[in-house]
Give the backbone structure.
Amino acid sequence: MAKFISKSNTETISIAKKFAGILLGGEVITLSGELGTGKTVFVKGLAQALGVTKEIVSPTFAIMNMLPANKNKIKALVHVDTYRLKNEKELKEIGFGDYLGASDTVCVIEWPELAKGLLPKKIISVTITHGDNQNVRNITIKK
C-alpha cells in the first residue's frame, strides 16, 4: 500500500503519472472518493503518462470513454463512471466487460461499487479523500 498527500491538482496529476509508470496493460483500477475529491484529475495524470492526447472529462453522462493510448503495449485507457447507473446489467449492456483485463488496455472505474460483481479478483484500488483543508487530498493506492 502506498499513501500520498496532494496539495493541488498539479500534485495529484504528478502522483498519478508516477503510478502509471508501473502499469503494463491489463490492469483494472478502482477509483473511490466523494464528489469533488479529484478522481477525474487523477485519471488526467494517468492519461498523460499513458500517451492519451484527448482531453479527459468525467464520463458521468457518457458512462464510458475509450481513449487511445500509446505507452509500450498499452493502446487504450477505458474510463468508466458508474455514478448514474442503477444496476450491474446497465454496465454489461454498454460492453464494459469487453475491456476488463485486456492486455493492451488499462481500465479505470469511478464509483466502482456497482461494478463489483464484474471485476476480476486482482484489482488496484485507489482511494482519494479530503484532507485537512479544501486543497489537500489523501491518496491511497492498494495493489
Summary: The chain has a mean pLDDT of 93. Residues 2-142 form a domain with the Rossmann fold fold (CATH 3.40.50.300).
